[in-house]
Automatic annotation (TrEMBL):
Keyword tags: Oxidoreductase
GO biological process: tyrosine biosynthetic process
Molecular function, one GO term: prephenate dehydrogenase (NADP+) activity
Stated name of the protein: Arogenate dehydrogenase 2, chloroplastic-like
One Pfam match: F420_oxidored
Organism of provenance: Ananas comosus
Stretches with biased composition (Pro residues): 15-29, 376-390
UniProt domain Prephenate/arogenate dehydrogenase: residue ranges: 80-359, 441-548
Length: 548
């Protein structure tokens, strides 16, 4: 027994498959292999269209071919006759790869999937008796979890060879393991598996994707071991990450990995989320999650819940976590802030200073600053510019002298160009140079935390002058991007930034804005916020900032 099958057992991992044949004529018995006449039908008289290979008259005369013929033989011996029971979405998905690897395929299902079967070269059987009489090496159960028991009970097991290997691919594992152990006679081998991917998530191949398996019961015979190894090899050949783990362990982890994912996807689907022009990457991932999880049947999802005891506990944990998250949020939305939020927006609606008026004034005084960066391309961004927003001063200051505002922002006036008047032809390039420098801003970032620092890196790279102020001491982070850090907001405002960028937390925005000595700023200062909500800072600005 060892001699006839030990080679098969090791063959797949030892020998690469240089030219997988989509329509192989495998024969696991090497002694018969060389005796049958060419093209004659397999003796099992099944409909699986398996032909015996030809007699090669030259075999004996070609002793030097031995190695390549032996490897060819081993390759053919690794091919299995696989009966897929449950030929739905996932069964067909697996079949495509099995067929490509050259295995002989039989299929059986409740519905008529004969066309889909034919498309991958599988023989389709309406009657499970016909299927079992074909003596598959492997019976692969790929029905829904919910129907698995009924389908298994409907199979005429007595018609199968006694050494058949039963495999399942159900997404829960304790349940089919117990079902197999309970319903299958002891001479059948049992392998419980879960390819942790599907037609959607593995449409570009199976490489690197996890394949979980548990050798629940294998006879201590070479045939059994070889068959099982050959089946597992289908997945390792595709590059799957093979993970041997017990069915119990699988179900514990799968509740979180799989049931949680599907639940979140299906809950989000109920929100009917739409793609918007301001999608973030995170949001795109949520949309993808909805698409992936909802493309599986509800039966599958229901099976994950009903047949994995860990799922119930997980659903409860999810409920508790959601409640606690809500409590945390609502707890922080204390009365004062809530009152402020809603009252301020009401006041503004009836205000004598319509938003449109304030905004247009603000826009008019700062329109150049707002538009300059987008109108003017920046052909050669200067990491150490000496910007000055006032063109009249720009041409009068001596080179390298400190900015007259005596601030700590280390802003220097640009050089006086003595040749200006004498070089009329330079006008265009100098004008564009001037505009480029005018597009540089002195930006005061108020709230120099995570996001403020993140923005600062790009502002600095684009050559803007940066000032920073924050509750905590971020002077080191500020220095690393060339920004001047101010503990005292009075010092910051006295530097007369062109832009005050509010990057505090949403919750502290009101307090921080009120703490700024606005009277020290130039009247035409532009206030910008980057808060992740928008109505609130708009109302806050309109309420607290003077019109100019
Ligand atoms: P599914 O809805 O879980 O199962 C569909 C299959 O179950 C079809 O073959 C269907 O047969 C059969 N079936 C359903 N109800 C039946 C009944 N009352 N009687 C007889 N057969 C019945 O969807 P699936 O995606 O194809 O999944 C098949 C199995 O693979 C499931 O156990 C699933 O957990 C597992 N799995 C799926 C994925 C995946 O990504 N989809 C990944 C890993 C594992 P007919 O089509 O003939 O009606």
């Amino acid at each position: 027994m060892l001699s006839s099958s030990s080679l098969r057992c090791r063959a797949p991992s030892l020998l690469p498959n240089p030219n997988p044949n989509p329509n192989p004529n495998p024969n696991p018995n090497p002694s018969i292999l060389l005796l049958r006449p060419q093209g004659r039908r397999c003796r099992c008289r099944c409909r699986c269209r398996r032909f015996a290979p030809p007699v090669l008259a030259m075999d004996a005369a070609q002793p030097f071919d031995f190695e390549s013929r032996a490897s060819d033989l081993l390759e053919r011996q690794s091919k299995l006759k696989i009966a897929i029971v449950g030929f739905g979405n996932f069964g067909q998905f697996l079949a495509r790869t099995f067929a490509r690897q050259g295995h002989t395929l039989l299929a059986h299902s409740r519905s008529d999937h004969s066309a889909a079967a034919a498309s991958v070269g599988a023989a389709f059987f309406r009657d499970p008796h016909d299927l079992c009489e074909c003596h598959p090496d492997v019976v692969l159960l790929a029905t829904s979890i919910l129907s698995a028991e009924r389908v298994l009970r409907s199979l005429p097991l007595q018609r199968l060879r006694r050494s058949t290997l039963f495999v399942d691919v159900l997404s829960v594992k304790e349940f089919p393991k117990n079902l197999f152990l309970q319903l299958l006679p002891p001479h059948f081998d049992i392998l419980c598996t879960h390819p942790m991917f599907g037609p959607e998530s593995a449409k570009d191949g199976w490489a690197g994707l996890p394949f979980v398996y548990d050798k629940v019961r294998l006879a201590d015979a070479d045939d059994s071991l070889v068959r099982c190894a050959n089946f597992l090899d289908i997945f390792s050949r595709e590059g799957c990450r093979m993970v041997e783990m017990s069915c119990g362990e699988h179900d514990e982890s799968a509740a979180e990995i799989q049931f949680l994912t599907h639940t979140v996807g299906r809950v989000l689907a109920k929100l009917d989320l739409k793609s918007t022009p301001i999608n973030t990457k995170g949001y795109e991932m949520l949309l993808k999650l909805v698409e992936n999880t909802c493309s599986d049947s509800f039966d599958l999802y229901n099976g994950l819940f009903m047949y994995n005891k860990n799922s119930t506990e997980l659903l409860e944990r999810l409920d508790v976590a959601f409640d606690s998250q809500k409590k945390e949020l609502f707890g922080r939305l204390h009365d004062r802030l809530r009152k402020q939020l809603f009252e301020s927006s009401q006041n503004l609606t009836g205000s004598s200073h319509p938003e449109s008026l304030s905004f247009s004034k603000m826009l008019s005084s700062s329109s150049l600053r707002c538009r300059a960066p987008s109108l003017l391309p920046n052909p050669n961004p200067n990491p150490n510019p000496n910007p000055n927003p006032n063109p009249s001063i720009l041409l009068l200051r001596p080179q390298g002298r400190r900015c007259r505002c005596r601030c700590r922002c280390r802003r220097f006036a640009p050089p006086v160009l003595a040749m200006d008047a004498a070089q009329p032809f330079d006008f265009e390039s100098r004008a564009s140079d001037l505009l480029e420098r005018q597009s540089k801003l002195k930006i005061a970032i108020v709230g120099f935390g995570n996001f403020g620092q993140f923005l600062a890196r790009t502002f600095a790279r684009q050559g803007h002058t940066l000032l920073a102020h924050s509750r905590s001491d971020h002077s080191a982070a500020a220095a690393s991007v060339g920004a001047a850090f101010f503990r005292d907001p009075h010092d910051l405002c006295e530097c007369h930034p062109d832009v005050v960028l509010l990057a505090t937390s949403i919750l502290s925005a009101d307090r921080v804005l009120r703490s700024l000595p606005l009277q020290r700023l130039r009247r035409s200062t532009l206030f910008v916020d980057v808060l992740s909500v928008k109505e609130f800072p708009k109302n806050l600005f309109l309420q607290l900032l003077q019109e100019n």
